[in-house]
């Protein structure tokens, strides 16, 4: 094939595929995201890939059709015979046609999110139903073609036509809406009008094991499994010679895909993905050593964002071939943390925490990746912080000092207490100032070689970040103290002048300050934007240009001008480029570098640019390359999707989900929206959502809004789930939208649902309440009538009770009157008794008085008898004496007294006599006087005896009553 033909072929292919903007970079390895079976929780084998109109990805997996929404993996349906899925195709209505093992059919999504599979095997004649894997499924015009080794099945108008061959088919190819079939006996055939026709010289294709065919104006490009590439035109089959023929034959081709600009992506059985250009040069070889998780490629598909999806025998990989960023990797892929990089004498050098490594940059850049490896520079194995080209020398600044790199080894030039970096002294290209851990050191170029001179006196601070201005001042940034401005003396051995600047001098903070030199101007990176020194006040002030484009709210971590006078910066977590348009005006570009967020080594951010436009970023994940000639569309539209909706109570009650066999199958046709009406008991919902943007999907943020419950959208967050509990009855719309790493906001997804009121707040409940209210009103009226009747009856009853009460009151009054009369009678009786008691007492007193008189008379008579003539008066006196004795011994008064006394004292005398029969009448009388509480002196005259006689009588009574000597006889008598 002539060079002119090849050029025509390349141009033809590039014109044939203008839509696909997916030319893969030659330099570096694209970013690869691997999904292993543990991640997607299904079978390891995957055979086909497709994307629907929304952007959802589907994979033909051994377990069924597997769906990926950027966050979650689900098996959405299976063939009726539960066999593996081998091929997929999708029409403009998102109906998925499925080729399986011994089965084929189609799947549609129902309103509840489920995919319903319908087998078409029942339409096949019974004699033709025995077939194996349906290897390819193709939608062509108004028909669907299912291709197996045994037969071709053409589905049209709900009928199936079967096309067979005498021998089995080897493979099938859709080429520009034409179907070619590799027949094991007849060679390469074309399916036209449901009939297989031989192409010119088709027999020469027998046994070639064709795996992919591309059609171009220059002819067909044919990829075979083990024989490499061929071209076919006008019946002539010729080898299509490439520089990777040996690699392709050894790796065994399995599939292929046409990329933009005439590139071919070739999937292999043993070598992963091989990308060649239109003339057969190797562009990329992405295998397991380069980051692909498995080297058996089964299929290749491009998505609508330019990503290449690789279906593997063990897993799935997504290669971001449209990105202008790539990783500089080799087969060893050993070094990751990159502190600095340099292109020197066509070699790429990287400084790592394990020394310095290099590779042949020119060969690597030309695509010779297979035999290009990073090689270690001997002599250094510690942290190398910086690489610099000074004159014709490449110097490395390491923990142990300064080294010069020559060939594949490093020679120690100056042993210091650590070296951060070096800068040339202004106007003295033969003097190199080295910033160390504890001060500054000077090296001098002698005989074209750098030699250590001395340490600079007067400065002992760490000098990791240094710049010099045009007047010879040295600016040193200390991240935790501030900025030092140093002027060296004329002999360059000591500090002549030192000034210090921190927050007191105008900086927003003394922490995390950096110094940069951009267009011969000293600038300072702070936590609040870019600052400079005011020429008049010497205060630190914000720089107006950078304030306009970078603001004053971000931490400026790096500023660096490239050879085209563009300014590269790292501001906060964003990396960008300021391109000067006219003097003082810039355009800012950040989107291509969003993937670099969180990849830099904190405090050691580094960007290296070259004259050729190559840009290198040193990160924790290796060296990343950027080429300005590679562009990518960052404003591509994409959609957010609601993956699953479930009620929290009862637990995990699913309402909407694409997961296989989790919801009861419905017969409704699919629609764009789905709504649910929920009972009040299901008023707690859990939403799962995702975005159909697969570039850095983990960094995609989401905002949501439950219309009818929340007043506005939420803040953006990384969470892909949201719960709502205790929702009141209402109609709701759940909205969600995403924002990817390029700040592109997706189309929103919505889910409409309604929470019904509880049964006691439903319409039927209110009707029931109204009916109950009517019943209640009727009951109240009825009750009032009954109450009035009861009141009337109660009134009558009360009147009767009042009459009875009045009668009772009269009886009570009568009884009270009788009681009052009885009380009066009792009072009269008590009065009579008191009068009798008084009479008894009076009689007793009179008796006492009478007895006293009689005793006095008796005593006088006794005296008269002694004084007068005894004989004369003896008889008279004796007679008087007898009368007096008779009177004193008379019982008349006592009998009356005893009768009254017994009445007053409950027959005291009788009870006393009955109890103590030995008592004499005198004893009884004495006891009666004791009952009346008379004392001894009062009793003696009544008994007509002396006081002594009373005491003797009391003693005798005590003895007769058998009372102890301690007992009081008076108390005993009173209580008897």
Structure in words:
With 976 residues, this protein is an alpha+beta fold. Among the domains are: 640-761, Immunoglobulin-like; 763-861; 891-976, Orthogonal Bundle (Arc Repressor Mutant, subunit A). 23% of the residues lie in helices and 37% in strands. It contains 13 helices and 64 strands. The strands form 16 sheets. A 4-stranded antiparallel beta sheet has the order 1-28-27-26. A 4-stranded antiparallel beta sheet has the order 2-3-4-5, with no helix packed on it. A hairpin with a 2-residue loop joins strand 34 and strand 35. The longest helix has 105 residues, at 763-867. The protein is elongated, with a radius of gyration of 62 Å. The protein starts with a helix and ends with a helix. The model is unreliable at 1-21 and 665-672 (pLDDT under 50).
List the quaternary state of the chains.
single chain
Instruction: Please state the CA-atom Rg, rounded to the nearest Å.
Output: 62 Å
Low-pLDDT regions: 1-21, 665-672
The shape, in one word, is elongated
- Identify the CATH class of the domain at 640-761: Mainly Beta
Mean pLDDT: 87
CATH topology of the domain at 640-761: Immunoglobulin-like
Number of helices: 13
Query: What about the largest sheet?
Result: 4 strands, antiparallel
Strand content: 35-45%
The helix content, as a percent range, equals 10-25%
Secondary structural class = alpha+beta
Count of beta strands = 64
Within the largest sheet, what's the order of strands? Answer: 1-28-27-26
CATH architecture of the domain at 640-761: Sandwich
The CATH homologous superfamily name of the domain at 640-761 equals Immunoglobulins
What is the distance, rounded to the nearest whole angstrom, between the alpha carbons of the first and last residues? Answer: 160 Å
Keywords: Coiled coil, Membrane, Phosphoprotein, Transmembrane, Transmembrane helix
Domain HTH luxR-type: 916-973
Protein name: HTH luxR-type domain-containing protein
GO molecular function: DNA binding; phosphorelay sensor kinase activity
């Amino acid at each position: 094939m002539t060079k002119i033909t090849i050029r025509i072929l390349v141009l033809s292919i590039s014109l044939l595929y203008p839509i696909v903007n997916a030319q893969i970079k030659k330099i570096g390895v694209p970013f690869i995201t691997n999904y292993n079976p543990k991640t997607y929780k299904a079978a390891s084998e995957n055979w086909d890939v497709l994307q629907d109109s929304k952007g959802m990805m589907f994979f033909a997996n051994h377990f069924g059709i597997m769906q990926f929404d950027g966050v979650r993996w689900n098996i959405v349906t299976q063939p009726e015979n539960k066999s593996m899925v081998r091929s997929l195709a999708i029409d403009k209505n998102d109906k998925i046609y499925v080729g399986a093992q011994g089965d084929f059919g189609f799947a549609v999504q129902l309103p509840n999110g489920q995919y319903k599979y319908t087998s078409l095997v029942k339409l096949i004649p019974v004699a033709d139903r025995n077939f194996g894997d349906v290897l390819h499924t193709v939608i062509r015009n108004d028909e669907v073609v299912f291709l197996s080794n045994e037969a071709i099945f053409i589905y049209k108008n709900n009928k199936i036509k079967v096309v067979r061959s005498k021998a089995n088919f080897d493979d099938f190819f859709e080429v520009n809406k034409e179907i070619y079939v590799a027949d094991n006996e007849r060679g390469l055939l074309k399916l036209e009008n449901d009939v297989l026709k031989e192409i010119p010289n088709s027999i020469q294709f027998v046994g070639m094991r064709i795996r992919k065919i591309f059609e171009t104006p220059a002819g067909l490009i044919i990829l075979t499994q083990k024989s490499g590439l061929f071209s076919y035109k006008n019946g002539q089959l010729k080898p299509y010679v490439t520089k990777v023929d040996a690699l392709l034959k050894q790796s065994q081709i399995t599939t292929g895909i046409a990329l933009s600009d005439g590139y071919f992506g070739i999937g292999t059985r043993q070598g992963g993905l091989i990308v060649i250009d239109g003339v057969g040069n190797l562009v990329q070889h992405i295998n397991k050593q380069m980051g692909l998780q498995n080297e058996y490629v089964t299929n290749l598909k491009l998505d609508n964002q330019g990503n290449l999806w690789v279906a593997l025998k063990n897993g799935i990989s997504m290669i971001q071939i449209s990105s202008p960023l790539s990783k500089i990797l080799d087969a060893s892929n050993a070094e990751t943390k990159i502190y600095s990089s340099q292109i020197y004498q066509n070699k790429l050098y990287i400084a790592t925490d394990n020394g310095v490594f290099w590779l042949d940059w020119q060969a690597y850049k030309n695509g010779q990746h297979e035999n290009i490896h990073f090689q270690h520079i001997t002599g250094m194995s510690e942290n190398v912080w910086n690489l610099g080209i000074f004159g014709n020398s490449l110097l490395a600044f390491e923990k142990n000092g300064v080294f010069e790199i020559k060939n594949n080894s490093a020679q120690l030039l100056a042993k210091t207490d650590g070296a951060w970096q070096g800068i040339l002294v202004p106007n003295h290209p033969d003097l190199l100032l080295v910033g160390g851990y504890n001060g500054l050191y000077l090296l001098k170029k002698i005989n074209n070689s750098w030699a250590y001179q001395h340490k600079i006196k007067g400065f002992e601070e760490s000098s990791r970040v240094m710049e010099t201005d045009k007047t010879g001042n040295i600016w040193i940034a200390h991240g935790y103290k501030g900025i030092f401005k140093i002027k060296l003396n004329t002999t360059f051995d000591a500090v002549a002048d030192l000034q210090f600047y921190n927050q007191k001098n105008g900086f927003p903070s003394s922490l995390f300050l950096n110094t940069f030199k951009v267009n011969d101007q000293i600038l300072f990176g702070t936590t609040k934007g870019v600052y400079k020194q005011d020429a008049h006040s010497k205060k630190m002030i914000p720089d107006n240009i950078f304030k306009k484009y970078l603001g004053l709210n971000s931490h400026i971590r790096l500023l660096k001008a490239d050879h085209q006078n563009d300014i590269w910066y790292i501001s906060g977590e964003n990396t960008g480029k300021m391109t000067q348009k006219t003097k003082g005006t810039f355009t800012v570009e950040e989107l291509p570098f969003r993937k670099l967020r969180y990849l830099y080594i904190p405090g050691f951010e580094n960007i290296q640019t070259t004259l050729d436009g190559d840009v290198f970023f040193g990160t924790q994940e290796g060296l990343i390359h950027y080429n300005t000639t590679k562009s990518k569309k960052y404003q591509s539209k994409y959609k957010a999707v609601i993956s699953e909706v479930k009620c929290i109570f009862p637990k995990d009650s699913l309402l909407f989900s694409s997961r296989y066999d989790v919801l009861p199958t419905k017969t409704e046709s699919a629609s764009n929206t789905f709504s649910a009406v929920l009972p009040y008991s299901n008023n707690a919902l859990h939403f799962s959502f995702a975005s159909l943007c697969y570039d850095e999907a983990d960094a995609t943020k989401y905002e949501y809004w439950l219309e009818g419950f929340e007043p506005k959208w939420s803040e953006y967050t990384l969470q892909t789930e949201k719960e709502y509990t205790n929702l009141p009855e209402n109609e709701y719309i759940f909205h969600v939208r995403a924002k990817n790493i390029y700040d592109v906001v997706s189309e929103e997804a919505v889910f409409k649902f309604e929470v019904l009121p509880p049964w006691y707040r439903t319409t039927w409940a209110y009707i029931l309440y109204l009916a109950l209210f009517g019943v209640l009103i009727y009951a109240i009226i009825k009750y009032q009538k009954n109450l009035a009747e009861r009141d009337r009856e109660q009134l009558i009853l009360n009147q009767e009770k009042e009459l009875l009460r009045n009668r009772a009151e009269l009886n009570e009054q009568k009884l009270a009157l009788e009681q009052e009369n009885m009380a009066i009678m009792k009072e009269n009786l008590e009065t009579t008794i008191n009068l009798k008691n008084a009479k008894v007492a009076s009689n007793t007193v009179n008796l006492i008085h009478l007895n006293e008189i009689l005793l006095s008379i008796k005593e006088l008579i006794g005296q008269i008898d002694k004084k007068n003539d005894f004989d004369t008066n003896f008889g008279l006196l004796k007679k008087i004496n007898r009368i007096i004795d008779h009177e004193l011994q008379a019982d008349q008064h006592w009998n009356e007294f005893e009768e009254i006394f017994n009445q007053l004292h409950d027959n005291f005398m009788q009870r006393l006599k009955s109890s103590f029969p030995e008592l004499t009448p005198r004893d009884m009388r004495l006891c009666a006087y004791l009952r009346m509480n008379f004392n001894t002196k009062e009793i003696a005259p009544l008994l007509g005896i002396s006081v002594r006689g009373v005491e003797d009588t009391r003693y005798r009574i005590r003895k007769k009553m058998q009372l102890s000597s301690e007992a009081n006889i008076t108390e005993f008598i009173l209580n008897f």
